[in-house]
Amino acid sequence: MEKFDTLITEKRNQKSMKLDSMNTLSFITLMNDEDQLVVKAVQEILEDIEKVIIKTTEAIRNGGRLIYIGAGTSGRLGIIDAVECKPTFSTTNEVLAVIAGGEHAFIEAVEGAEDNETLAKNDLQDLKLTENDVVLAIAASGRTPYAIGALKYAKQLGSLAVGLSCNKGSQLSLYSDFIIEVEVGSEVITGSTRLKAGTATKMILNMISTATMVNLGKTYSNLMVDVKPTNYKLVERTKRIVMDATQCSYQEAEKMLKKSNLQPKIAILMILLNCTMEEAIERLARNPKIIDAIE
């Protein structure tokens, strides 16, 4: 394993050496300045992110899953992204997340969990990992044993192994089919990778899940046509989505959503093609993207 003093995520930030004597505005101004570096760092690796998105799209089309796995902040960020895919894109198990130490570790650290390679293997076995899946291991340091264990098992099984790190030339790269390394520099509080590293990680996960879902036909234009309306706000949003997509009235959108069992994607196609729910479903089975289904 790498020595910690070689990791940029563990180095001291020279700009914040007088942190405890700075006034609040000066400190948060420094934080904001440092956060600007995150956007630039992610911009530099967009082609690496694109490659992962293409492979992930192919995997899910072929019945596979995208599985985020990590420890601590990295694991929590994976969970946040995965759970949001369900209401936004009506996913079932296409995007999943695992954190070292189990669900309890989301709110409280589980001692020693991140240092256990075997634990990652066990967690992936519990998910019945297959060669069709994509395992995306997240570790800001790039050397977390739990994340490395996940990649080792993924490669052993023939799953696509992807490492996401905030250090160049990380240990994760040794076990990855594809590696995403975004170097955002040292943190304003030394080693606190929930800051810039966490922001970069969240941005990248946003890109991977969102672009993959768009590729899979989960949007029409920039409308989330596969949203799951589980509360009043989302029910009203689905009506606006149908109205925006078809230029129909509020009453028409409400009526067609009822006919489609609150499935905006189906309702939109029913209106655009003046067809039945069954015909709309059949069209989408052949062409998951509305833009293709209406041609």
Describe what this molecule looks like in 3D.
The protein is an alpha/beta fold and 295 residues long. It folds into two domains: 4-215, Rossmann fold (3-Layer(aba) Sandwich), CATH 3.40.50; 232-293, Helicase, Ruva Protein, domain 3 (Orthogonal Bundle), CATH 1.10.8.1080. It is 49% helix and 9% strand. It has eleven helices and five strands. Strands 2-1-3-4-5 form a five-stranded parallel β-sheet, with helices on both faces. Helix 3 (72-89) links the parallel strand 1 (66-70) and strand 2 (95-99). Helix 4 packs across helix 5 and helix 8 packs across helix 9 (264-273). The radius of gyration is 22 Å and the shape is globular. The mean pLDDT is 94.
